[in-house]
């Protein structure tokens, strides 16, 4: 396993910043080291080497590494050195999931973020999508059609509905991937769990508004058609219309739930 050897300092390197504990100070310096010099998969130096390097105890080093693991920067396992993690949106996804689940306004905040992020994503996809990328979007589109047909035949089976929404999430992730922008792709992937939850709510609102499931499928097909035509402006407009419609669906579901609670 590849690891990084730290140069010995001329003096004690770990100088706690005012207001920081020794653990926080070491964690901050290790974070700088990871971002500046280390690639995913590279092992941190041994606890003994880091303790000498930073002039602290091995217990302090151990706690600092746990702090980094909590931030998703490293992976730790018993008996092995900590390893720099692959970039992940897990922490952001958990935060967004919490907001959507526990904050009534969270769903609508998510739509506002999607307005900026996904309109740019689809615009870039229309310009940059490769054949494999287009095939990925089309596969998710077909998955939505198949799950939608089964959902209507089952009259609301939750497992099938979840499969439909997962393909919907996959559709938006595939567009982000087709955009060629790694930051957009990472952010959309981090939003997968809250997106799925919002899609369940949107589906309830659409039913309350008397709109068929086919309208959701048609909206996605329109977006795909614009991407395939390389018409970035039309793709932006189609995505914007889709997101605005989703917001109306969620508002209908939210208002209905609020009314039901008020009647109790």
Give me a quick take on this structure.
Keywords: DNA-binding, Transcription, Transcription regulation. By secondary structure, the chain is mainly alpha-helical.
Q: Could you name the key traits of this structure?
A:
single chain; 264 residues; mainly alpha; Arc Repressor Mutant, subunit A; Four Helix Bundle (Hemerythrin (Met), subunit A)
Describe this structure in words.
Helices cover 73% and strands 2% of the residues. The protein is mainly alpha-helical and 264 residues long. It has two domains: 22-84, Arc Repressor Mutant, subunit A, CATH 1.10.10.10; 90-263, Four Helix Bundle (Hemerythrin (Met), subunit A) (Up-down Bundle), CATH 1.20.120.530. It has a two-stranded antiparallel ribbon with strand order 1-2. The longest helix is centred in the last third of the chain and has 32 residues, at 232-263. The chain is elongated, with a radius of gyration of 24 Å. The termini are far apart. Mean pLDDT is 86; it is low at 7-14. Keywords: DNA-binding, Transcription, Transcription regulation. Residues 20-87 form the HTH gntR-type domain.
